[in-house]
Structures are given as C-alpha cells and as structure tokens.
Amino acid sequence: MKRMLVKSLYFMSAIGMVLSTVPAIAAEPLTVKTADVALSSDGVLKGTVLTAEAQPISGATIEVLHGDKKIASVVSDEEGQFAVKGLRNGAHVIQCANVQQPVRFWTATASAPPSAIRSVSLVVNENTVRGQQAGGGLAIGNLVPFAVIGGVTAIVVGTTLDESGYPAPPASP
Length: 173
What we know:
The protein is α/β, with parallel strands linked by helices. It has a domain at 35-129: Sandwich (Immunoglobulin-like). It is built from three helices and eight strands, in the order αββββββββαα. Strand 6 and strand 7 form a beta hairpin. Helix 1 (2-20) runs antiparallel to helix 3. The longest helix is centred in the first third of the chain and has 19 residues, at 2-20. The radius of gyration is 28 Å and the shape is rod-shaped.
C-alpha cells in the first residue's frame, strides 16, 4: 500500500511538472512590420523609451543592429529620450530590453516614403528593462502545484498508515 502511494506521488509530481512547463502556442504567427524611419539630416535617430503606461524610462539601453552586428548603443536620459548618431540608409533592428523593432532608415540624401516616421517610441516592460523580472529570480507560482500535491499526499499518507507502514485497523464501534 505504501509503495503504491509513493508511486502515485511520483506520478502526480511528474504530471505537475509537465503541465506547468507546457508552452503557450499562438493560433496565428506573429508578424512584425518593418517601420520606415526618416533620420535627421546628419544621420541621427531620435526616440523615446516608454512603459506600457506611457511613462518614460530612464537608463534603458538602446542598441542598433545591422544584421548580427551591433553598430551603436546609447542609454536613455531622465525623460526616456535617446539619440543615436552616425546611422546610414538600410535595414536595421532597434533593440531595447524585450523589444526588437525592424526598421528601414532613410537619410536626407535618400527619398523617404511619405509614411516614414521621424522619431521612434519603444514601449517595453519596465521590469525587463531593469534586467530582472518582478519579484526576483524565483518563480514561486510554478511551485504552488507541487506544494499542494505534496501537502495532500502527506495528509493522506499520515492519516492512513500507522508506524509499521500498514493501514491502521478500523476503530471498534
């Protein structure tokens, strides 16, 4: 009986581990559009880093990538604003924390399309910008199913077995 309960505990724990780590699958693939950005006459990209609540984020690192190569890196000021100098035409990626935005830069010598924007706004998760997740590094929420299963199993085992490992005899009426 005790051996069966122990096997059941292992089985329930294994199911809990599998169910708590199943990734979410999107119904449709996510497409990210490339934004056309008109740089200033001297090749400067200007922008702002904001939270989802439209509050500026100071001290955020913004990187500009061309292919796999980082070509520029700046930090946002107290108002969340930044300026990246020395950029040229072409396809790039602007990266800040958990955001990667593909862009196509247009300088003054190139003819930017009418839809091109003059300044970018990067909306990021504020907790990720700081390099940590909220609440620290331990995900307590994932441990809750194991704690519940372990507690229930301990109560069942503790109330049905005596010290010899066999079920306790029924109480006499």
